[in-house]
Write a structure and sequence with these properties.
By secondary structure, the chain is mainly alpha-helical. It is built from 18 helices and no strands. It is globular, with a radius of gyration of 21 Å. It comes from Micrococcus flavus.
Length: 361
């Protein structure tokens, strides 16, 4: 949608970037809200604002507004940040023996929606047409329903609030105005915590960087499979050709349904790699060790990037690379986040989780 509304293939990853930026910048406000009023309030606020963002996503193609798309993506990013912070609700009252497994179960619960989401393009389009909306608006109508359902479930189901209960059992409330600097102080003081946060930050950055441009790349491959493998001397011409192909693809969205099916399948498999084996990653982190599994996850990310880059002209090879990318992210994120949760206690834990781009972002 970003390519279609902006008219430039190079802007294809800006919506994902906006979501990630919003997640990083909203981490501290969400942490403050959680410390003051509990996880339930913070997660409800994140999902409520994300629901508003999905309304913007529905309207952006109707109005042909790229700025509205970016603004809406920022709000949707708050929901993504809330989803990532939700996994820590499982660790607020968990013991050290099963902390990673409990966290992994929460991450795994995202699998159904995350895998189904990219494949809702067809049903979403069918829903949009009777309403007089563009096909690209349809999936976000389903997202809106999901966000509102999440708000209802949080309000009804997350009782008693795990964070407020943990703080009460741990010896009292936090400081009235928690600051990001307090979390950074913990990172400077505790080298092991800093390493764990750095590992999760790195894993997330690599995953977003590769995944956000994959749909645009696959669209270019579908237009001209030979173009990604042209000789280095023709690199500039190849880039111009790829940009033109992506723009042509965006201008004729209704004529290439197979491309969307392929993109949806690849992204679904990538997301399955991220979430489906999270309980296994949690079990391995508890049994094998958080540090070892984090290192294995980072190594898998390196292998994924090398494989996807080497086989950039082949959809099957890119798909395998994206699956490995998801598995590496899962291992590093589950193990690294569990490591942070076991090393930091009390209010400081929530503040460390709020470091932008860190375990909670």
């Amino acid at each position: 949608m970003a390519v279609e509304l902006s008219g430039h293939a190079g802007w294809g990853g800006t919506t994902s970037m906006a979501m990630s930026l919003a997640g990083a910048l909203s981490a501290l406000p969400l942490a403050r809200l959680a410390l003051a009023h509990g996880r339930r309030t913070a997660l409800t606020a994140a999902n409520g604002l994300a629901a508003l963002g999905t309304v913007g996503m529905v309207l952006a193609p109707v109005l042909g507004s790229y700025p509205l798309l970016l603004a809406a993506a920022l709000l949707v990013g708050l929901g993504a940040a809330g989803n990532l912070q939700a996994r820590f609700a499982a660790t607020d009252l968990a013991d050290d023996v099963t902390r990673a497994r409990d966290l992994g179960l929460v991450v795994w619960s995202i699998t159904l929606g995350a895998v189904a989401g990219p494949n809702l393009i067809g049903p979403g389009a069918a829903l949009a047409r009777p309403l007089g909306l563009p096909d690209t608006s349809g999936p976000f109508l389903l997202s809106l329903a999901g966000m509102l359902l999440a708000v209802a479930i949080l309000q009804v189901g997350l009782r008693p609030d795990p964070l407020t209960t943990a703080l009460r059992l741990g010896g009292g409330p936090p400081a009235p105005r928690p600051r990001l600097a307090d979390g950074l102080t913990v990172l400077r003081r505790e080298r092991a915590v800093a390493l764990a946060v750095t590992a999760v930050v790195t894993a997330h950055a690599v995953m977003v960087a590769v995944m956000s441009m994959t749909p645009v790349h696959l669209a270019c491959v579908a237009q001209d499979p030979a173009s990604p493998d042209e000789a280095p001397g023709a690199a500039h011409a190849a880039q111009e050709h790829a940009a033109h192909a992506a723009q042509e693809h965006a201008a004729h969205l209704d004529t290439a349904p197979d491309t969307f099916v392929v993109i949806g399948l690849v992204i679904s498999l990538h997301i399955a790699g991220m979430y489906a084996l999270s309980p296994v990653m949690g079990h391995l982190a508890d049994r094998w060790g958080r540090v070892r599994l984090t290192a294995a996850g980072l190594g898998t990310l390196v292998a994924a990037c090398l494989l996807a880059g080497a086989g950039r002209g082949s959809v099957p090879v890119v798909t395998v690379g994206l699956v490995l990318l998801g598995l590496g992210w899962s291992a590093a994120t589950v193990a690294g986040s569990a490591r942070v949760s076991e090393l930091v206690r009390g209010p400081d834990r929530v503040l460390v989780q709020a470091v932008p781009g860190g375990p909670g972002a």
